[in-house]
Structures are given as C-alpha cells and as structure tokens.
Amino acid sequence: MLGPMENQPDRPAGEPQSPVRADWRVTVTLAGYLDAEDATKIDHTIDSSVTVIEQRPASERADVTVAVDAAGLVAAVHAGLAAVARGLADAGLKLHVVGVQARTAEEYERERAEPSDLVNAAEISKILGISRQRVHQLVERPDFPKWRYNPPTGKLYDRHDIEEFDRHWDRTIGRPRKTSRSE
C-alpha cells in the first residue's frame, strides 16, 4: 500500500484507490557534515511545523526530517525534497541528497517510540558503572567509540560499541601517577 487510502466502494473493479491527504514525515539524507550553526540555519529556513536534524558522523551523513501534508507517498517525497532543497539553498549550503524516506506521521512516531540501541551519557554511566562526569571525560579518549547521532538533546552512542569498550577498558582506579620532570 502506498499510504493512507479511503474506501471507495463505487470505483470500478481493478482501479487503484486514490490516496487521501495525510500528514507525512519525510527524511532526506545528505552527504556531508552539518555543524550546529548549519543545522540552525536550515531549521530557520525550512517552512515545516516539524524539522528534526540529526548528524551521523560515523557515516558523514545528516538526516533532515520535515513534516508535509500530501496526497500519497510520491507527493510526500516530492514535497519533502523540495522543502529541504529550499532550506539548503536559503541557508547557502551545498550538500548532496543521497537518500529519502517517507512515512506517515503515525508510523514515524511509532518508530521513534521503539526501544533503540542508541544510548546517551546517562545510560553510558549505568552501563560502565561510573558517573556522568566521568563519561564526559572518557568520550575525549581516542579509543572511546564515536558517537552515532547528535540530536539537540545530546550525543548518542551505539550500545554495542559501549559494551565492547567496557570489555577492553583498563579501569585503573585513582588518579594517574605524576611523573617527575627531568631538568
């Protein structure tokens, strides 16, 4: 099925149903990195009641999700692509579209409500058995896993990467020894 359809009992047999207007969420995936300033520019230039911008540094991709009102899947994709393209142009950014996904608003919200394998600093502190302050220190280490998404609420990490880090992490207790300077 290509989106919400209304019952049309009077239509001839075999004729496809026509889509009804619905609220859609269209996610446009862009190649490249959006820093916080670029994300703010795009957010302010896109005319949408809902704009969600998420950076995926591991793959150097950014997802821009917009709300559109459209009569079916194809119309939603066109409207979403047009909104993001206008937003990028108005913000003076030149990023290439590498993917697009359209879902009804209900499906989008259902997916977002599902449990995820992404964890924030509070969840990392529970997994590793350390304070949140210590988590913020650990993320600066070169061997700490890279974050996967950076929504406005804070960086998110893959749970499996954190658990793997925990298995190999040398948990030295206490402060590192001071080394004497030779003059």
Entry summary:
Helix content is 34%, strand content 21%. By secondary structure, the protein is of the alpha+beta class. Strand 2 (51-56) and strand 3 (61-70) form a beta hairpin.
Helix-strand blueprint:
Blueprint (H helix, E strand, L loop, with lengths): L21 E10 L4 H10 L5 E6 L4 E10 L2 H19 L4 E9 H9 L4 E2 L1 H8 L3 H7 L18 E2 H10 L15
Antiparallel strand pairs: 1-3, 1-4, 2-3, 5-6
Mean pLDDT, to the nearest integer, reads 82
Helical content (DSSP H or I, runs of 4+)? 25-40%
Radius of gyration: 22 Å
- Topology, number of strands: 6
The low-confidence parts are 5-12
Number of helices: 6
Instruction: Give the SSE string.
Output: EHEEHEHEHHEH
Strand content: 15-25%
Span between termini:
76 Å
Strand order, biggest sheet? 2-3-1-4
In oligomeric terms, what are we looking at?
single chain
Shape descriptor reads elongated
Largest sheet: 4 strands, antiparallel
**Which structural class best describes the helix and strand composition?**
alpha+beta
Description:
By secondary structure, the protein is α+β, with helices and mostly antiparallel strands. The chain has six helices and six strands; from the N terminus they run βαββαβαβααβα. The strands form two sheets. The protein has a four-stranded antiparallel beta sheet. α1 (36-45) crosses α2 (73-91) and α4 (121-128) crosses α5. It is elongated, with a radius of gyration of 22 Å.
Which keywords apply here?
alpha+beta, elongated, 34% helix, 6 helices, 183 residues, 4-stranded antiparallel β-sheet, 6 strands
